[in-house]
């Protein structure tokens, strides 16, 4: 990964971060704890550079998920953000404002994967035009994928 500055945060914008330095290898973890922590099929993570993470608003809250692991999340909206372990800190790939070059390069705990996870992208694509036009009418209160002085909006008290 290249040496750069990156930003990201949670869905509501209460927790935001800035990372300076070279990120480690992006991965997905299939362990049951990651499935539960992310509420998904696996946990997509990338290693943060040691000492390179700055929390620019609130810091995450943490849950001690095992003897050596704590998981950071936004206390306001619940977004999963970090995986903290004795060797360092991993950041959820989906929390980065720009995720375009963070494609996972390795799968961890593959034996614990959900058996059908390898075939999910072989399923048909939903192409109902009416469905997508209704989706475009949704008013989102999600924080934009960049830092902004105008946030918070919509009466949110962050």
In DSSP terms (H or I, runs of 4 or more residues), the helix count works out at 2
- Show unreliable segments: 153-158
Provide the helix percentage: under 10%
Number of β-strand runs: 10
SSE pattern, N- to C-terminal? EEEHEEEEEEEH
How would you explain this protein's 3D organization?
- This protein is mainly beta and 158 residues long.
- Helices cover 9% and strands 30% of the residues.
- A hairpin with a 6-residue loop joins strand 1 and strand 2.
- It starts with a strand and ends in a 23-residue tail after the last helix.
- The C terminus is likely disordered.
Task: Break the fold down into its secondary structure elements and pairings.
Layout: E1 3-9, E2 16-22, E3 27-29, H1 32-38, E4 43-47, E5 53-55, E6 61-64, E7 70-73, E8 80-85, E9 88-92, E10 106-108, H2 129-135
Parallel strand pairs: 3-10
Antiparallel strand pairs: 1-2, 2-5, 3-4, 4-9, 6-7, 7-8, 8-9
